[in-house]
Specification:
about 5% strand, binds zinc ion, 2 domains
């Protein structure tokens, strides 16, 4: 497997690589440290941004970024009690990337079909676990907000 950090190929023979959320495959301990650092820096960057800023029209990558920001802010705003409850019931959602997947599914299910490619018809697997959805056309921000309301993610 090609390392997403240093770009070295699979021929190194170490075989001890690992996947870092949102950063891809890291081949060595050094690359893992770099990948973890980048992940943390990106999450800190999202945390520092106001949640209600988003482009007027969202392309797929804008929506990816915004939904992750939404998850980061959501987790940041949890009370200690809520966090403990989540850790008991759904510990995987303490990871913003996993929580963002759930948010995306719920939001997209409330978006008009004209906006989203119909990969959802491929089966009962979680629609977006492989990141295969995409927007057919940019989605106006108010449509995203409306979908969030319908999904009861915001009031
Ligand atoms: Zn590497």
């Amino acid at each position: 497997m090609k390392c997403d950090i240093c770009g070295s190929g699979s021929g190194s023979g170490s075989g001890s690589g690992t996947l870092i959320m949102g950063q891809g495959f890291a081949c060595s301990e050094d690359c893992q440290q770099i990948a973890n650092g980048r992940r943390k820096a990106f999450i800190d960057e999202l945390k520092a941004e106001p949640i209600n800023t988003m482009p007027e029209q969202l392309e797929t990558h804008d929506f990816e970024r915004w939904s992750l920001k939404f998850a980061v802010h959501f987790l940041d705003g949890l009370s200690d009690g809520d966090r403990k409850r989540l850790a008991r019931s759904n510990p995987i959602f303490l990871s913003p990337e996993h929580l963002a997947l759930d948010f995306k599914e719920r939001i997209i299910s409330h978006l008009h079909k004209a906006y989203v490619s119909d990969v959802e018809h491929r089966g009962h697997d979680r629609m977006f676990s492989s990141g295969t959805y995409c927007f057919r056309q940019p989605v106006p921000a108010e449509k995203i907000i409306e979908a969030c309301r319908k999904a009861q993610l915001i009031n």
